[in-house]
Amino acid sequence: MNAGLAVALANTWLERQGHLDRIHVKDHGTLPDQFIKGLSIACLQGRAQIVPDLQVSSECKDTSCPLVFYLDGAHSPESMEICAKWFSHVTKKDAAQPGPLEQRRSGINSK
């Protein structure tokens, strides 16, 4: 459903901007190659995703100041409850273990 919405939105935007001629449709009812390529390489995580800001972490002289984003696209009461449990679990675990910056400095492989 999300891919269908993305295709419809992209098609409408191209049409309204006057760029619909830039996409090459082989025949009516098939997606243009550009759309197929875009959909095949799209990566939308947003569920229980942990993203460290490596630039901020590398600028810290003190290892206790890494910047980490905890992302989740929860949008219903049930998914928000699960997200809260995940966040609580993960931040407790992160507090008990050395972060990526400390691991790198001590020579431990972070994978």
Automatic annotation (TrEMBL):
Keyword line: ATP-binding, Ligase, Nucleotide-binding
GO molecular function, one term: ATP binding
Record's GO cellular component terms: cytosol; mitochondrion
InterPro entries for this protein: Folylpolyglutamate_synth (IPR001645)
The name this protein goes by in its record: Folylpolyglutamate synthase
